[in-house]
Structures are given as structure tokens and as C-alpha cells.
């Protein structure tokens, strides 16, 4: 059974995947780009996913080598330090959240749920 801190990180990732998806649902790219609220909400959810992924043990990540763990972890640096993200990165954030990374996000969510549901 995963430690409590690992379980909390997994719940954070799961919840923020669902939040980011919900924040962009029915929203066009133009609407996303113009809405500071949506932009910052999605960016914060993705930052939390990135940070929580850093707390996962290698054993868990090694069981899902098809997931882009390094990209997930490293994305947080862009969100934290990419001050020009608002202008230049809005389209990338939106496309990856709304559609481009949908299969990775769904795959990550399935892996996390499976890990959380493991028998003790």
C-alpha cells in the first residue's frame, strides 16, 4: 500500500486532472486566452500535477513507463518561471489541456486510480 504522502500526491494529480478538464470544457481557445481566471486556474492545476508527480516513487513511475513522467515533472518549471507564458504559452497550455494531451491525461488518471485501488 502506498504511503499516505504518496496517496495524497495521487489524489492531487487525479483531482487536478479533473479540474483542468472542467475549467476548459466548452471553452474555445479565444475564450481561454481572454479569460485570466481560466488561464490561471488551468495553469495552477497543471502546476500542482507537476509538483505532485515529483513526490511519486520510482517504483510507481517504473510501472507506467509509457507516461511522459519527465515532461510532467518539468512542466512545472515552465508554469512557475515562464513569466511570458501568458502571451506566448496560452495556446500551448490550452491545446495540451483541452485536446493535445488528452490521451496522456486519461492514461495518467487510469494509472493513478488503479494504483489507489490496489489491495492492501
| Total number of helices | 7
Shape: elongated
Report the strand count. Answer: 0
Number of domains: 1
Helix-strand category: mainly alpha
Rounded to the nearest angstrom, the radius of gyration is 14 Å
Unreliable runs, pLDDT <50, ≥5 residues?
Answer: none
Percent of sequence in beta strands: under 5%
- Give a quick account of the main beta sheet: strands, pairing sense, barrel closure: none
Helix content: over 70%
Distance between the termini: 5 Å
Q: Average pLDDT across residues?
A: 77
Strand and helix order: HHHHHHH
Topology at a glance:
Elements (H helix, E strand, L loop, with lengths): L3 H21 L4 H6 L1 H18 L4 H5 L6 H13 L3 H16 L1 H15 L4
Amino acid at each position: 500500500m502506498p504511503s499516505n504522502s504518496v496517496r495524497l500526491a495521487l489524489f492531487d494529480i487525479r483531482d487536478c486532472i479533473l479540474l483542468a478538464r472542467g475549467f476548459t470544457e466548452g471553452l474555445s481557445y479565444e475564450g481561454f486566452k481572454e479569460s485570466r481566471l481560466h488561464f490561471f486556474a488551468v495553469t495552477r492545476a497543471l502546476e500542482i500535477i507537476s509538483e505532485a508527480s515529483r513526490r511519486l516513487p520510482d517504483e510507481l513511475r517504473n510501472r507506467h513507463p509509457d507516461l511522459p513522467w519527465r515532461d510532467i515533472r518539468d512542466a512545472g518549471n515552465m508554469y512557475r518561471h515562464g513569466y511570458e507564458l501568458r502571451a506566448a504559452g496560452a495556446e500551448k497550455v490550452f491545446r495540451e489541456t483541452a485536446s493535445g494531451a488528452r490521451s496522456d491525461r486519461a492514461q495518467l488518471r487510469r494509472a493513478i486510480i488503479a494504483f489507489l485501488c490496489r489491495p492492501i
